[in-house]
Predict the 3D structure of the following.
Amino acid sequence: MKKIICIILCVLCLNVTVGCSNEESLVSEYNISVTLNSDMTASCNLTLNYVNETKEKIDFLEFMLYPNAFSKGSEIKPIYSEYVERAFENGVSYGGIEITSVKQDEKSARFEVIGGKKHFLKVELLEEVKSGKNTQISIDFLVTLPNVNHRFGYGKNTVNLTGFYPILCPLENGEYYESVYYPSGDPFYSDVANYKVNLTVPSAYVIASSMSPELVEIEGERTTYSYARNGVREVAFILSKNFNVIKKSAENAEVFYYYFNDENAENSLETAIKSLDYFSNKYVEYPYEEYVFCEADFIYGGMEYPCLTMIDKDLNGFERDYTIVHETAHQWWYGLVGVNQSENAFIDEGLTEYSTVMFFDNFSEYNKSKKQLFNAVYNAYFELRKSLLKEDDLTPKMNRNLGEFSSDLDYVSIAYYRAQLTFRDLCEFMGEKRFDKFLKNLCAKYAYKNLTLNNLLLTAEKYKKGAKNFLVSYIDGSVAVK
Ligand SMILES: [Zn+2]
């Protein structure tokens, strides 16, 4: 995500094939059917071919239920109070997900919606799954979309159907990691899987999604789209009755832009193509056939999904270009290389911000050098830490759980500003050529996997002796950025 806040903007304005390469049988497959109803509920089924990729037997599964962050009873609100008015233009609205049945291999299975925030689904397996074996789990569920300009919800122009289905919690040291939906950051964390989706909607909607439909069937006033995509962390759909669509080829993919409020749509498309090609050459080749980005009713600048980006329809000028490039960089730092964003948001946001700055430095037509952009962030970082937080808190710890940030500005100053300056300083410590090789290797090595903090440190150390301690001193807050 790219949160746009005043300070930085003012400063800136002044101036696989995986799935494909993995054996298909070794990756879990989500088969989802969704019918969007006119009352903004969706009747859904998920049939998961669960593959036990661990070395241990599995006797229960745990899923994240992100929509329940938007339910009336949620203890933690998904939006900070200062954004509530802009998010809920028509007054506070609630949504959620109701699980109506769970079966394992056609037999009813015991399930429980757990956690104080009802954010997780625990399914007791009737039969345990041995290492390397699989089982079929079928989950019926009903989704209610809130009327909110957020990732999950609908606004005046778009229906944002993201994070709407149960997503398996990744295992960390043998335990399911429960990613709580805090208002800070992007509390999303999942393993790569294969997907098939059947989506039925009123025919008037045009759909921007993580994949192109393979089959379209029209029946009366409803249209069903069938999709498939291998080797992604999640799938998402943005629907609108107002979308215009343009497309153009990048080096390795077709790029589609769905928009309704952009007078410079061709320019936006060019920015997306240039950045996709730039990052493809700088890191690893973009491995999917399409990259889609779209405008949306969304209050936080932009949001990344595998093969799909949404941007706030109200962004203009350089803000819009910056957000498009930032979200495109997330196709590598989140989409391909996964990170536990609830614990180490600074890794993917920091690498994404660093990559974004390097893009602008390489394309002089945007008139933003890295010196200019890093200086703006440097000033914004110290201004935020000094004026909005404690005077002496200029060396904060970076690897915090999202629930440990005291405010949105606390989060922004660390996950975006301090993090990108950390990677800038690491680049200086290693030397640019070596640093570029390090990032390229990091991307190739951890594509389709989740990168832990420890593996980031170990890989950095391989490229330059002392890099591990250098990074740790920034992350644990013992030094200030230069
Ligand atoms: Zn971001």
Notes: Residues 28-191 form a domain with the Immunoglobulin-like fold (CATH 2.60.40).
